[in-house]
């Protein structure tokens, strides 16, 4: 049977194989860069309509990622990463931080209290409005690839759980590369398609939620994306930063066993989250 050829949103090749058949489409894997992606690709208008739905907005504000404890842990982890890869930055008096997809602005609140000059961008006007109530005049509404920000101006850029949503992830990564200062660092977090959970649950993995998530990365395809976007130096690891909600009703012993395995998964590259630290240090060459 004739099988439609789709162009990979990362490497633009058209050689792919089926991964999972889903209700209204399927996930396919690019044979060239290993990105798994959802087809048919939604249009930007369809995505805008989807994110404007009331149910999506309610899910968003109630999600675990909106909690203060969760954000505090995330900020502390971010500081450990900076201390490891760019220790001088923490000592700088003036340091600039851009958070892409800043949501309700919780991470930026921790950063501003810690002396960072902050900027956040957010697609959802509702979330941006709530963020702006906490941090006045530092939140921009819109798609980062269309926003007008000065090049070479940020020491740190973070993009948590955004690239899996984007129709054109490379366009965004290229933009971030330009916005970073020559010695700045970019931190990316996205669900790990090679995680234990993803392998175990197959097409029922909780992150397979098109049209929200339309790109599914493993460390290989994330690295390929960074290279294509012009980053020539980066480190990719996996992490297990969340509680596993599904086991909360299981018996205690089983919970202990499963959460212990979960905590060990990063050692094997099987952690739930894929994290990349990318450097633009060669930009000045
Ligand atoms: Zn590809």
Order of helices and strands: EEEHHHHEHEHEEHEHEHEHE
In the CATH scheme, the class would be Alpha Beta
Mean pLDDT score: 89
Main pleated sheet = 7 strands, mixed
CATH-defined architecture = 3-Layer(aba) Sandwich
Strands, count: 11
Helix/strand structural class: alpha/beta
Which compounds are bound in this model?
zinc ion
Question: Oligomeric form of this entry?
Answer: single chain
The CATH topology, please? Answer: Rossmann fold
Roughly what fraction of the amino acids lie in strands? 15-25%
Q: How does the SSE layout of this entry go?
A:
Layout: E1 16-21, E2 26-30, E3 36-39, H1 44-51, H2 54-62, H3 68-85, H4 87-91, E4 96-100, H5 106-113, E5 117-122, H6 125-134, E6 139-141, E7 154-160, H7 169-179, E8 180-191, H8 196-201, E9 215-216, H9 219-228, E10 233-239, H10 252-264, E11 273-279
Parallel strand pairs: 4-5, 4-7, 5-6, 7-8
Antiparallel strand pairs: 1-2, 2-3, 3-9, 8-11, 10-11
Helix pairs in contact: 3-5
Q: What does it look like?
A:
It is built from ten helices and eleven strands. The termini are far apart. Helix 3 (about 70-85) crosses helix 5 (about 105-115). The chain is globular and about 55 Å long. It has one domain: Rossmann fold (3-Layer(aba) Sandwich), CATH 3.40.50. Helix content is about 35%, strand content about 20%. The strands form two sheets. Strands 6-5-4-7-8-11-10 form a seven-stranded mixed beta sheet, with helices on both faces. It has a four-stranded antiparallel beta sheet with strand order 1-2-3-9, with no helix packed on it. The chain is α/β, with parallel strands linked by helices and about 280 residues long. The chain binds zinc ion.
């Amino acid at each position: 049977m004739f099988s439609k050829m789709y162009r990979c949103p990362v490497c633009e090749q058209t050689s792919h194989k089926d991964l999972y058949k889903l209700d209204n489409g399927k996930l396919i894997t690019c044979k060239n860069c290993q990105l798994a992606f959802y087809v048919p690709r939604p249009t930007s208008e369809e995505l805008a309509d989807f994110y404007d739905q009331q149910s999506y907005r309610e899910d968003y504000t109630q999600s675990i990622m909106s909690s203060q404890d969760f954000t505090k842990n995330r900020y502390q982890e971010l500081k450990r990463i900076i201390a490891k890869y760019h220790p001088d930055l923490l000592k700088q008096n003036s340091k600039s931080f851009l958070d892409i997809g800043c949501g309700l602005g919780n991470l930026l609140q921790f950063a501003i209290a810690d002396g960072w000059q902050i900027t956040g961008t957010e697609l959802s006007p509702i979330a941006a409005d709530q963020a702006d109530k906490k941090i006045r005049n530092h939140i921009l509404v819109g798609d980062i690839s269309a926003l007008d920000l000065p090049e070479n101006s940020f020491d740190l850029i973070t993009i948590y759980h955004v690239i899996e949503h984007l129709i054109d992830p490379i366009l965004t990564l290229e933009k971030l590369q330009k916005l970073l200062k020559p010695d700045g660092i970019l931190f990316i977090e996205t669900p790990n398609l090679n995680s234990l959970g993803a392998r175990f649950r197959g097409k029922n993995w909780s992150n397979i939620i098109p049209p929200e998530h339309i790109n599914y990365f493993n460390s290989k395809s994330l690295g390929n994306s960074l290279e294509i976007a012009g980053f020539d130096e980066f480190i990719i690891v996996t992490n297990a930063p969340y509680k596993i909600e599904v086991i909360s009703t299981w018996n205690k012993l089983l919970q202990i066993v499963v959460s212990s395995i979960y905590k060990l998964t990063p050692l094997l590259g099987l952690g739930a989250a894929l994290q990349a630290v990318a450097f633009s240090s060669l930009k000045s060459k």
